[in-house]
Design brief:
0% strand; 3 helices
């Protein structure tokens, strides 16, 4: 009888300590908050990448525009010299050539800038969707735990 009381008392003490320990244990991480943090982090990463690519495209476009302007100015100077020497057709040809080169480089810079803008948008959208998928998956997981 004494052994039964001791065993029962020990079991009761174990159950009480298990309940106390269970109350003290916090869930590892609130999955909703975790999903929101992941989604926000991916959104920020996408924005940073998009901004970096936009800036890169702008720099390239500006550099090509400046190069085209320099070439056009050089051709204009050569055209002025040709005109001063009496070569009207040569002067017109050089001015047209400078305009063509300048326009070509402007268009090239615009194409590169637009391509990098689209690439940044695609990456940003991809990371946004990835964050939403992760958040949705964690929401489902949290519902099943409750």
């Amino acid at each position: 009888m004494k052994k039964t009381i001791i065993v029962a008392h020990t079991l009761f003490a174990l159950l009480l300590s298990a309940n106390v320990m269970a109350d003290d244990v916090k869930p590892a991480v609130d999955l909703d908050k975790r999903g929101d943090r992941i989604e926000e982090r991916l959104d920020n990463k996408g924005d940073r990448i998009e901004n970096r690519l936009d800036n890169k495209g702008d720099r390239i476009e500006e550099r090509l525009d400046n190069k085209g302007d320099r070439i056009e100015n050089r051709m204009d100077k050569r055209a002025d010299v040709a005109e001063a020497n009496g070569h009207e057709k040569r002067a017109e040809h050089l001015r047209n050539k400078g305009d063509r080169v300048d326009q070509h480089l402007d268009n090239k810079g615009d194409r590169i800038d637009n391509r990098l803008d689209r690439r940044g948008d695609r990456i940003d959208n991809h990371l946004d969707r990835k964050g939403e998928r992760i958040n949705k998956r964690l929401d489902k997981r949290a519902k099943h735990r409750n």
